[in-house]
Amino acid sequence: xxxxxxxxxxxxxxxxxxxxxxxxxxxxxxxxxxxxxxxxxxxxxxxxxxxxxxxxxxxxxxxxxxxxxxxxxxxxxxxxxxxxxxxxxxxxxxxxxxxxxxxxxxxxxxxxxxxxxxxxxxxxxxxxxxxxxxxxxxxxxxxxxxxxxxxxxxxxxxxxxxxxxxxxxxxxxxxxxxxxxxxxxxxxxxxxxxxxxxxxxxxxxxxxxxxxxxxxxxxxxxxxxxxxxxxxxxxxxxxxxxxxxxxxxxxxxxxxxxxxxxxxxxxxxxxxxxxxxxxxxxxxxxxxxxxxxxxxxxxxxxxxxxxxxx
Length: 310
Hints:
The protein is an alpha/beta fold. It has one domain: Alpha-Beta Barrel (TIM Barrel). The protein has twelve helices and seven strands. The protein has helices at residues 25-37, 57-69, 86-99, 117-131, 148-151, 157-166, 181-191, 206-211, 222-234, 239-255, 260-272, 289-300, and strands at 8-12, 42-44, 103-106, 141-146, 171-176, 197-200, 216-219. A seven-stranded parallel beta sheet has the order 2-1-7-6-5-4-3. Strand 3 (103-106), helix 4 and strand 4 (141-146) form a beta-alpha-beta unit. It is globular, with a radius of gyration of 18 Å. The relative contact order is 0.14.
């Protein structure tokens, strides 16, 4: 897809923590710079991988502000700002817009199960009206976050069509973390021709998505695989991309062989030589030594040497 606002490789960035479990913004900014130097086009901070739902609203605001203050280009940031409360989501969106973010990723309101399409439409209408207004081409684009395994609230094709009609130029795209490529394809088939940006959360689907008109990936594994993701994206439709995709799929499989967020933190800790990267907020727990050993063996078997640490 041409002219996608976040087209390419977007990393669902980890949030490093101090020993007291306070977000470590210096360490996070260094990781962001390393990612941008090694294939990342965008930085999906405050997402699932970034433990956003373990952070309070004031912490999320401070994290956005702190990353920008540390020199990470705000144009590269795609923060995850969806909450269960309209007022909290509006507060976060307004601040992201003030900082100059070009887009934000929104989960649906995920506590109440089986909401109606009318209820979801009302939620997003209230959020957009209060945070942005019904302005076509608003400077802050909204990306929907489809992750039914976690949220239990899906984004259906009819709901997306309704939101796009109500907020033209505002509802810009979607991240599909369903792991169901038929669903991802449905989003492309229905909306991509009109410029709607479809991103996969599964690195294993990246090349297939690009070949049917998708925009790229927003993924957890790209905290360590961004250089390979970038190769797939740059050479989509060629044998070189297919070869890179085969390796990327192996990396994805290795990374997901352990609990994902603590596993990625262990991989970054090993690569950087900084054991503090393994700090993580409960209910997540650091990997056990046995889990780490198994993960490292699986990752190393992929034959991928990470670029030099920041």
